[in-house]
Design a protein that fits this description.
heterodimer, A: mainly alpha, ABC transporter involved in vitamin B12 uptake, BtuC, two-stranded antiparallel sheet, B: mainly alpha, 13 helices, 75% helix
């Protein structure tokens, strides 16, 4: 996770290398962050708390996609379909069997795992573009099935669900725990054999195979883990919204999740978190901007269009100008201060 | 009994006509995907949105030059090609040499940007460029079946365009340069072919053909942002036939259109959104490089 510093801190034992928080600075920063996260519900307005909850939901999904795309190197344009699968599993079980959350949550995870195998099967034969396209097609099929259920049962506007948690603070606690669990799971996975296998596969499949890595198994595992996490996020999403509808899981949602990974920075869990924060808060920022800056009158009426255009523009800018994403900017900032008054790293330390 | 059989026949003729029209819509759109992919190995997922932009171009020129419809159409066609040139020159040119995924994501982002901009400029209101041009869309009889005037135009234009593209790619200098660039960019560049010019030409041709498709769809129904879905649905047609084969795009369009029309008619109208993608998955499982695509493509991707 962390890079060796130029400060004279050297890792001398394997334990040091495996530690999640290695320096005092790290521990202090994490402590401050955790304290802030725990204090937030007591300080924030209901609106801010809702935003925080949305961000935490997005973090779970973004971390899941980051594992798959950023670490295992498998592209998925179908993650909105997986979110939808989790949400619909919850909705259908709730409506048809009045199932409580401790039934729907594991069922959503199970459906996610199953879909992960289905989404992952093409990856055994296909690479790059073709894989992206096959997951895109699966997205449409999942959405179609959800739509079909809604129409057949006459829920033309969507499936309504009662949430077991009523107040926003309770939700905040649950979602914070979910996001923390997702991040911890991801970090731990990446420190194990599995994570290293994914890394090798992402680097070069032929080499990974020569190293004795069972490529189909690890690819499928990446898809299954990612899909399960995403599907659980979908289940939480359904409860949080109290409502499941196919419109919520458009292609745009998939693109938003891909954008979180890209804007955050490929191959970094911190990137997934930053990307989730950025993409979730983006529309609200745009709304503020349109309200405060003089703009043509019709812009205020079609905010979604302003949002679309701005989002597309920002995504293009990141892809063209800053492919390393927010994490790239963050690292460069760190380097600037660590190396000051020098401009760049000495050759030996550059990685 | 006899009349019932007759009725069945009529229906089948109508279905056949519908299939041919839908297939030519898909073929007209999917040749844009094929042209760009074949020449530059970039998959443009903004094709639906660029098609939409072409159609709005026609709407704008039609309201500016409502006196002379032919001039309006000519201007709109020119505009569509220029849009493609601009997309390449301003954006995709920077992505040459980047990973395939990055290029695809840039086109997706471009699509979102364009969709937002069209709403801001032209609003979400339905537009009818055909009325502005002062032309009608009469329904013409073919035997027992009927075809709309624009539907017929679709079939004729698609046939003419594919013929034109065949001749262009086979016999003209620029067409041969395009094929060379697609086959081996490095060798082509070393033999003095200007790759950037060739790629720009491919983008211009793709938005030109896509623009025509967009304009015709706008004339047949109405013009609003939902057109993007049709653009995306044509993509499976291109892939089923093989992403680097124009002949494949024709065949793929026919297969996808067939499956779509028949399943909608005999099974469920809701299927229309999903059939092309189901066909796509079936194809990816059996023969990922498509019916007529070249097989080594997969390793290159």
């Amino acid at each position: 996770m962390t890079m060796p510093r130029a400060s004279g801190y050297f890792r001398t034992r394997y334990d040091d290398d495996l530690r999640l928080l290695d320096t005092r600075m790290h521990k202090a920063a994490f402590g401050a962050f955790a304290l802030g996260a725990l204090a937030l519900p007591f300080l924030a307005t209901p609106f801010l708390l809702d935003l925080a909850n949305q961000v935490l939901l997005a973090v779970v999904g973004a971390v899941a996609l980051m594992l798959l795309t950023g670490y295992a190197g498998q592209i998925s344009l179908g993650h909105a379909g997986l979110l939808a699968a989790g949400a619909y599993t919850t909705g259908i079980l709730f409506r048809e069997f009045a199932a409580p959350w401790w039934v729907t949550l594991p069922s959503a995870a199970l459906v996610g795992a199953l879909l992960g195998v289905i989404f992952g099967l093409p990856s055994l034969r296909l690479r790059g573009l073709y894989l992206a396209v096959s997951t895109l097609a699966l997205h449409f099929i999942v959405i179609y099935l959800g739509n079909e259920y809604e129409t057949r049962r006459g829920f033309s506007t969507g499936v309504v669900i009662d949430s077991p948690i009523a107040d926003a603070r309770g939700w905040y606690a649950v979602l914070l725990a979910a996001a923390a669990a997702a991040i911890l799971l991801a970090l731990n996975l990446l420190r194990t054999k599995t994570g290293r296998a994914w890394h090798a596969i992402r680097g070069k499949e032929a080499v990974a195979e020569a190293l004795g890595i069972n490529i189909p198994a690890y690819k499928l595992l990446a898809f299954v883990i990612s899909a399960t996490m995403t599907s659980v996020a979908g289940c939480l999403f359904a409860y949080y919204r109290g409502f499941v509808s196919a419109e919520a899981f458009s292609l745009f949602l998939t693109i938003q999740y891909v954008a979180m990974v890209i804007i955050g920075g490929m191959g970094s869990i911190l990137g997934a978190v930053l990307g989730a924060v950025f993409v979730t808060l983006f529309p609200y920022g745009i709304e503020r901007l349109v309200a405060s800056v003089p703009t043509p009158a019709q812009w205020a009426n079609s905010l979604f269009a302003v949002n679309y255009a701005a989002f597309g523009l920002v995504m293009i800018l990141f892809l063209v100008v800053e492919p390393a994403g927010l994490v790239g900017i963050w690292r460069r900032l760190q380097d600037y201060f660590i190396l000051w008054p020098f401009k760049r790293k000495p050759l030996a330390a550059s990685r | 009994m006899g009349s019932r059989v007759r009725g069945n026949d009529d229906r089948q003729v109508q279905l056949a006509v519908n299939i041919v029209v839908l297939a030519s819509i898909y073929a007209l759109i999917s040749c844009g995907y094929v042209l760009i992919y074949r020449v530059s190995r970039v998959l443009s997922l903004a094709h639906g949105e660029l098609m939409l932009l072409g159609a709005y171009g026609l709407y704008t020129t039609a309201s500016l030059f409502s006196r002379s419809p032919l001039l309006a159409v000519a201007m709109a066609l020119l505009l569509a090609a220029v849009i493609g040139l601009l997309v390449y020159a301003l954006l995709m040119r920077r992505m040459t040499g980047e990973s395939v995924l990055a290029a695809v994501l840039v086109t997706i982002a471009l699509g979102i940007l364009v969709r937002g901009l069209t709403v801001l400029i032209w609003s979400t209101q339905e537009r009818h460029p055909l009325n502005l041009l002062g032309w009608g869309n009469a329904s013409l009889p073919i035997g027992a079946a009927r075809i709309s005037g624009v539907g017929l135009a679709f079939v004729v234009i698609t046939a003419a365009l594919y013929g034109g593209l065949y001749i262009f790619l086979r016999y003209t200098h620029w067409g041969i340069r395009m094929r060379a660039a697609g086959q081996n960019p490095l060798l082509a560049a070393q033999r003095g072919i200007n790759l950037h010019a060739v790629y720009a030409l491919a983008w211009a041709l793709a938005t030109f053909t896509g623009g025509i498709a967009g304009m015709l769809i706008a004339c047949d129904n109405a013009l609003d942002q939902t057109m993007v879905t049709i653009g995306l649905k044509a993509f499976p047609a291109a892939l089923v036939g093989g992403l680097d084969s124009l002949l494949g795009a024709l065949a793929g369009s026919l297969i996808v259109a067939c499956a779509e029309v028949l399943l909608i008619y005999y099974v469920d109208p809701l299927l229309s959104e999903v059939v092309p993608f189901a066909v796509l998955i079936a194809m990816l499982v059996v023969r990922p490089w498509g019916l007529f695509g070249s097989r080594e493509e997969l390793d290159r991707v």
